Amino acid sequence: MTQYAAPGQPGSVVAYRPRYDHFIGGDYVPPVSGEYVENVTPVTGEVFTEVARGTDADRARALHAASGAARSWGRTTARERATVLGEIADRVEEHATELAVAETWDNGKPVREALVADVPLLIEQFRHFAAVIRTEVGQVEQLGRDTCDYRSFQPLGVVHERVPWTFPLMAASRVLAPALAAGNAVVLEPALQTPASIHVLLGVIADLLPPGVVNVVTGSDDHRVPSGRCPNIFFSDVTAQRDSFLDKALEGFAMFAANQGQVSTAPSRALIQTAVYEELLNLATIRTEQLRLGDPLDTDTMVGAMVSLEQRDRVLAYISRGKEEGARLVTGGEASGHYVQPTIFEGDHRSAVFADDVLGPIVSVTRFDDRDDAVKIANETAHQLGAGLWCRDVALAHNVGAELLAERVWVNNYYAYPANTAVLAEYRRVKHLLVSYSDRAQGYF
C-alpha cells in the first residue's frame, strides 16, 4: 500500500498554482471577463485552486493563436512530428506519478486506476501515433496510361474539442495525440469539474511544442458526457468451474464501479442466465462488497469519490427512484460526502431502473433464459457504446457478440482500449494531386 500526500501537504508530488489563466499562444493569459471559478477536489470537498472562466472572446483568442501556429506545424514533416510526440511520451512517463496524483485530486478516481490505466494509456496514445505517421506513406493510383492520382494526407488546420470530466487526461490525449500527429493545432476546453490536471500536463510538455500548437481555455460548464446502458452478459458455463476464469468474470461484473461508474461504456446492466442466476449473483455481490471505498490517494482504494456533489446527487436520486419502482436493492445505496457505495439492483429488465444511466457506481441485474433471450434484452437499449460477454464456449461468444448492437463488444474481458489508428482520419483530409505527364491534348474540345 502506498499513501500519496495530498497536494499542498508536505511530501506531495504535485504542486498547483493558486490560480490558472487560459493557456493561449504558449503563455498564460488572463480571461477577457476577469472572472475565475473555484476548483474543488472531490477527494476532500475543498477548494484547491481557481481557473479562468472561459467566454467566446477567450475562445476566439485561442482559435486565432492556433490558426497561426497551425500553418507552420502543418508544414513539418511526419518524422519531425513523430519525434515531438515521442518526446512527449517520454516526458509523461518521467512524470507519471505526478500526473496520476493530479488526475486523482481533480477527478476523484482511485490513484491505482490512474497509475495502471489512465497515464499508461496517455503515454501509449502518443507513442502509437508517433509510430504510425513515421511509417505510413501516400498512395499512387494509375488512372490511365498518362495520368496518376497522387494521394497524400493534409491536416484540417485547427481542432477545437471539449474534454469530458470522466477521464480528463486520457480523453485529452485521445484528441492531442492524433490531432498533433496529423499536423493540426489544438484548442482544448476541459470540463468545469476537472480543469486542473490538464494544467499539470501542460507544465510537463508545453516546452516541447511550438507556441500556439496547444491551447487550453477553461471554465466552460457545457460538457455533456455520452452515456448508454451497456449490457454485461454472463452465460451459465461461467460457473462450470471455480477457477481463475470465474474469478476474472466476477472482476468483469465489478467493473461497473470502475471510475465510480463515471464511464460512458460502464457495464451498468448485468444479464445472468437463469440456470446459474442465484449462484452467480451471490458471488458477484460478495465481490462487489469487497471493493474498498475510501481515500483515492491510497493505492489500496478501489472506488473513489464522485466528481462533484451534483453528480453524487444525481446518483442518489436514481437510487431512490429504483427503490420506489420496486427494484430490489441487493447491496450498497449509501453515500457520505462525495462517496457513494457500489450498488446492485435486481428486477425486471423492462423497468426504468434498467433504462436510465446516470454515470454512477450502480448496476442493474436481470436474468435471461437462452442466447436469443440474452440478445433481445441486451438490444432493448439501442444506444450502447459497449457490451461485455462472458462465456467459455468460444463459438457461442462469437455468434452472440456479432448480434449485439454495441459499437464495441468485450469478450471475456472488459476495458481493453487499444489506440485506434483509424481516428487519424478524423483529423486530416486526403489530398488528390491528379497529374498528367502527356503533352497531347485530350480531345474534349
From TrEMBL:
Give the matching Pfam families.
Answer: Aldedh
Which Gene3D superfamilies did the record assign? Aldehyde Dehydrogenase, Chain A, domain 1, Aldehyde Dehydrogenase, Chain A, domain 2
* UniProt GO molecular function: oxidoreductase activity, acting on the aldehyde or oxo group of donors, NAD or NADP as acceptor
Keywords, A to Z, come to:
Oxidoreductase
Q: Tell me the domain of life.
A: Bacteria
Q: Where is the Aldehyde dehydrogenase domain?
A: 32-221, 246-420
The keyword Cell membrane is annotated on this UniProt entry: no
Q: Does the keyword Oxidoreductase apply?
A: yes
Q: Can you tell me which family this protein belongs to?
A: Belongs to the aldehyde dehydrogenase family.
- PANTHER family in the record, alphabetically? ALDEHYDE DEHYDROGENASE B-RELATED (PTHR43111:SF1)
Q: What is this protein called?
A: Aldehyde dehydrogenase domain-containing protein
Q: Which organism is it from?
A: Lentzea aerocolonigenes
